[in-house]
Amino acid sequence: MTSDVRERPTEGDEDSRAKRLLSRMQKINAPADFGVRLDRRLGEERRRRQGRSVRMPAFVPFRVPIYAASIIAIVGMSVVAYYALIRTGVTPEEFSAPKQQIGAPTFRDSLLMDKRGVPADRDDAPAELEERSSRMHPRGEKAPSVSFSRERKEAGATSELKKTGDLELAAPSEGLYKAKDVQKNEVDSTDMKQDSIRRAAESEQQPPQEHE
Amino acid sequence: MAQTTKPWADHTDEELMARFQSGDEEAFNMIVSRYKDPLMNFVYRFLGGYDDSVDVVQETFIRVFRKRALYRPIAKFSTWIYTIAGNLAKTELRRRGLRAFISLGQSRGGSGQYVDVADERYSPEKAAESALKEEIIQKALLAIPPRYRELVVLRDIQELSYEEISRITGLALGTVKSRINRGRAQLQTLLKDIYNV
Questions:
Q1: Which residue of A92, A176, B68, B165 is surrounded by the most CB atoms within 10 Å?
Q2: Please, is A105 exposed, middle or buried when counting C-beta atoms within 10 Å of its C-beta (0-12, 13-18, 19+)?
Q3: Per CB distance under 8 Å, which residues of B are interface residues toward A?
Q4: Could you read off the pLDDT of B93-103 as tens digits, one per residue?
């Protein structure tokens, strides 16, 4: 018996219709090469498992898990580092402290140098530079000690050879400008530089003093 | 010489798993051949996308292989493997940030909702009609929220019992039943037009 007029289904009917539709859906199957692909992936899995252990033939005749090998390596490195520090006598503070640049000239050095880079407050510096140094610092006050590298000594020797030449103020090198930046808070660099130029000019005008 | 061992087909899932746990990989192959199609059906209906579903099912078996020592026979093996597959499928769903990409829920001149299927896919032939119908149902399934979809698929497509679904999902029995009812109600709204197809 057919009827053109469809009866409005009840909620329960629609619910069961949905259920029936779902249950009649075509079954989805795995692809034909599913097993082959799975075997390949399982092979990779097995290899990865084997890769998690390492053979240490020099020490142990059997395989060691990778985490155990890592722990052994870390402990070994720690022991080596500890004894290395103890033997060299380096304290952790010294070890971790930032290293000061050896021989790096300060701005004060630049004021005490002539253009050939010879510091004026060293015993082996040329006499004229010592004299300049004594003028720059008040009497009784010790001139600040500066490092005097081998290169500067050689430069001083050159300066000695050219003693008769004019004393000119050297333009500070790039490193010296950096040093100036470091001491920016202490000294007004521009004023100091002008002062040094003025002193240099005075020393040009004055006749060389004779030492007793 | 008579074989004393049971044929593989007579072993229960739990027995196969016990043999696999003791190192018999042939038992694992038997498990794969038993479950690859049901899992494929479940994951495909839940996730959509054939290739992604294959990947998820393969990953499920790899997890079973890797975690075989964790299985205890106090639970049914099917519950365990469906739980793994469902979790992986949900993870995949989150990863893809998959939203129902079908244009369901659009109103066409009023109250009715429809499933947007391209006209050129329609064929008067019965087989094509059936395929079209199937596609519409699949799209409608993917349009309902995953928390309902999983339960509806497990119940109405995989035909598992409410108790087993409850164990697989970890939900209370009442929650399972109410969610299945809500899922079906949403489906029947979406599939209103297909009843006349």
A1: B165
A2: buried
A3: 29, 32-33, 36-37, 39-41, 44-45, 50, 53-54, 57-58, 61-62, 65-66, 134, 137-138, 141, 152-153, 156-157, 159, 181, 184-185, 187-188, 191, 194-196
A4: 888 775 544 44
